[in-house]
Structure formats: structure tokens, C-alpha cells
Amino acid sequence: MSRYFSEKYSALTPYVPGEQPKEMQYIKLNTNESPFPPSPRACEMAARAAQSLQLYSDPTCARLSEAVARALRVEPSEVLLTNGSDEILNFAFMAFCDEKHPAVFADITYGFYEVFAELHRIPYRRIPLQEDFRIQIEDYFGLHSTIFLANPNAPTGIALSPSEIEQILVRNPDSIVVVDEAYVDFGAESCVPLIHKYDNLLVTQTFSKSRSLAGGRLGFGVASRALIADLNTIKYSTNPYNVNSMTLAAGLGTMEDAEYTARNCRAIIENREYAASALRRLGFEATDSKANFLFAKHPLLDGGALYRALKEEGILVRHFDQDRIRQYNRITVGTKEQMDVLLSVLQRILEEKA
After folding, report:
1. Rounded CA separation 41/353 (Å)
2. Which pTM was predicted?
3. Whether 258 contacts 122, CB under 8 Å
4. Is 101 exposed, middle or buried (CB count within 10 Å of its CB: 0-12, 13-18, 19+)?
């Protein structure tokens, strides 16, 4: 770093995104992207919006906010569109966390929570998952802190039910609970309906996974009007034109083609169950994932070594160095054909190990 870099950030460890290699063609199962392209309607509308890029985008994101609100059965004033769901999470750390309201999240979860806490110098605490990687909801009762829950969790894929999250809300009436639903469309149940019952709930979602717009950078939050107003204060104090015109148009096209998204989700769920069963037949242990990825390990294979062996075979998965999970790899669910290639390579690796 340069000698000009502020001391307040000098110790910051940034989030490390999944590999996006350019040197060769990989079967890319490492960043939980959809294997399916965006809706043709989304592409058509984005191309049309490109003709007006000399103009600023709509800072209110009105048309897309209305479309999202209709789909989720909430009011547009209860929705905030952002530049990816990471931005709404960042806004939440800024708006609802400070010395009096520290952040709390699981010890194994989305890595950006810790980065945001460090970035904004917010005190935080990590609560260990159980041995089976499940959240013990009682650990989150009466914390007097802002709670961040990825649901389904990442990288485990394990989901809590809305009734379990409701217990956390009830027992933290004076604290914000943020439920990060990036993967909710792959078999979990959304907590969005609870925003009308609990004014301390913020639900975040993304267009990156189920809606095939990872490159578009589009996310949103859903909460009471008062919480959305708080978050808008942060937005309009940082970047009022936070979502570009082409992305807004692509998002609207995606919402107008809901059956395309639903069909892709069904395919991914089918491929996940197919791959999970096949992995278990090969001797792998896998969590009960409700996301578009599998989290698995093999008793005969070192997790890091397996990651490297698969990379040499042209298959990218995600490996983490944390002690509790370093024997696991997170495998994005791709097409049936991609899963078959992965399974074939894994079987060969195991045969060579025997």
C-alpha cells in the first residue's frame, strides 16, 4: 500500500471474490452463478436502454421497484433497489450498526459481513455454528445487537424456516435482524411476508443467482417504510444513481419473464439433488443444501488437494481455508452435463486414490 493510505483502513482484510480466470476455459462451479443466460426479455430491454445512456438512470428505480413489490406483495415504498445485494448489506451496516449496536453473525457464513464490520469500525461478534453447521436459534436470543443471517447460509446451504427466524425477531424487539436471502429461490422459504408483522426485519435478495444477472449487479432490500427511509438516507448520501439504466431495464425484463426464472430454478434444484445423490454414492458427505450449490467433503480426500486436482482437470470449485471447513469444497450446481463431467472426474480421482 502507499504511504498515503489512511491508517483507519491499513489493517483491513478485503473480501476475496471467487476466481474469474481468463487463461483457459473452465467448467466454472466456484461462484454460484447461474448456468443459464439471462431472460431474452431482459437482454432485449437492456439493449434498448443502452440507446439512452447519455442520461442518468432513475434514482428512484420506480418501475422496477413497482415490479418487485407486485411480485412480493408489498408496497414500492417497502423496496429499495441497489447495486447488487452487497450494497444493501453495506447500507445496513452503515444505517443500523455502531458502538451501541454491534453486529452479530455466524462464524461460518458470508465473508463480507466481517469485512463490512471492519470497514466501518463496527464492533462485531461471531457465533459458532453447531457441529453439523446448523444455527442454534437460541444463540441469537436477546443479543441487543444487529443480527445478520444468511438464509440459506453460505457456504453450507442450510436454511432456517421463517418460524425459526420469527423466534429470533420476537426475542430481539429493539434490534434489527437482517435476513440475507441470496439463495432463497432454490428451496428455502422467504421471510418477506414477515416485514408487515415485524418492523425490525430487513430482508435482502439478489438478481445474481436465480435471476441470472450476476454481471448486471442488482439487488434489493424489503422492509418497513421507516427502515427503507433510513436506508435511502444512506443511499442518497453516497450514490443516488446507484443502479444503471441497462441494469434497471434488464431487471424489469427479468421480472416480466418470471416463468423463465422459475423454470431455471426447478432445473437447478433437480440437478442439485441428482449431484448430491451421486456424490453420496461416491462416499462424499454433504450438507442439506437449499441453495444453488453443494457443500461436500470426502473422508479419503484432502479438501485443498481436491480443489487443486479439479482445477487441473479444468473444473473450478470454491475452497475455504477456515479450520472448521477446510476439508470441504463448495460446488456450484450447473447444468446436468456439467454435473456429469464433475462426477466423472471425481470418480476417476477416487479410483486413482484407491
Report:
1. 48
2. 0.95
3. no
4. middle
